[in-house]
Amino acid sequence: MANLGVADSHKTTILPEGGRDFLRRRLMELVGVTMAALGVALLMAVFTFNTADPSLNHATGNPPNNVMGLPGAYVSDLLLQTFGLGIVLVPVALITWGVRMLRTHHLGFFGLRLSLLLLALLMMSVACVGLGDVGGAATHAGPGGLVGLALIGRFREFVLTHSSGGSLALIEPGCAALAFIAMAPALGMNRTDLPLIFRSLRAPFLGLVWLGRAGVSLWRGKPQQFDEDAIVALSFAVVVINSWNRLAVAFRAPAGSYQPKTLAKPA
């Protein structure tokens, strides 16, 4: 009876040990791929928006110019009319979340991230109102959409009620700053992501510098070359400079504080 009780206490599982974790990881990867693909499709639909495409406010028999076809034309028109150009934050968040789920198989605090994304979207809609006329990139509701126009009216009313109105020009930049601040935790950024972000932002600048140097070299006819003696001297100069820099950091010596002593002249 004792052996029977022990046997009954163990649950029989269909999946082998570790199979449940394997299926969970594959499911998270599938959700990540779907989310990233949805973000890419939405981003392409918004970027290829055309006011001449058929939509809920524009009936035409012409085929849509939107890359995503008729559904992309309708969806992009509806979103741009509602939130304006700030809707770009949504596909960016979807792509980022999808890639993160592919890499880590986890996306914690999803409700909080969704709330911060909504806050960033509202603030960015207000900020885009200040862009003015952007041509065919926006609908007749303007670059901030109906939501941006409604919110900025409330904000201006609040500012005029509690001040002389001198800070009205700070509404759009302030909302843009709040949008970027809210997007950082919404996308799941942390301190480990900062080096990657800085490298991504620095890459275009370094590319332009490289192209500029290459253009100057081609204009001169031949890039300047160092001979062996110059390379050795340059290498030792770099080693010396780095060594002194390391010593200054180790001893916490302020840069420029060293003053060489002069020998007294003999009488």
Summarize the structure.
With 267 residues, the protein is mostly helical.
Summarize the SSE layout with pairings.
Layout: H1 2-9, H2 19-47, H3 69-83, H4 89-104, H5 110-129, H6 145-162, H7 171-186, H8 194-220, H9 228-250
Helix pairs in contact: 2-3, 2-4, 3-6, 5-6, 5-7
Any key phrases for this structure?
extended, 267 residues, mainly alpha
Radius of gyration: 30 Å
Query: What is the helical fraction, as a range of percent?
Result: 55-70%
Summed up, the domain count is 2
Got a strand count? 0
What is the typical, i.e. mean, pLDDT?
78
Distance between the termini: 111 Å
Largest sheet: none
SSE succession: HHHHHHHHH
Helices, by number, come to: 9
**What low-confidence regions span 5 or more consecutive residues with pLDDT below 50?**
1-9
- The rough form would be described as extended
Structural class given helices, strands, pairing? mainly alpha
Proportion of residues in extended strands: under 5%
What this model shows, in words?
The protein has 267 residues and is mainly α. The chain has two domains: 13-189, no CATH class; 207-250. Helix content is 64%, strand content 0%. It has nine helices and no strands. It has helices at 2-9, 19-47, 69-83, 89-104, 110-129, 145-162, 171-186, 194-220, 228-250. Helix 2 crosses helix 3 (69-83) and helix 5 (110-129) runs antiparallel to helix 7. The radius of gyration is 30 Å and the shape is extended.
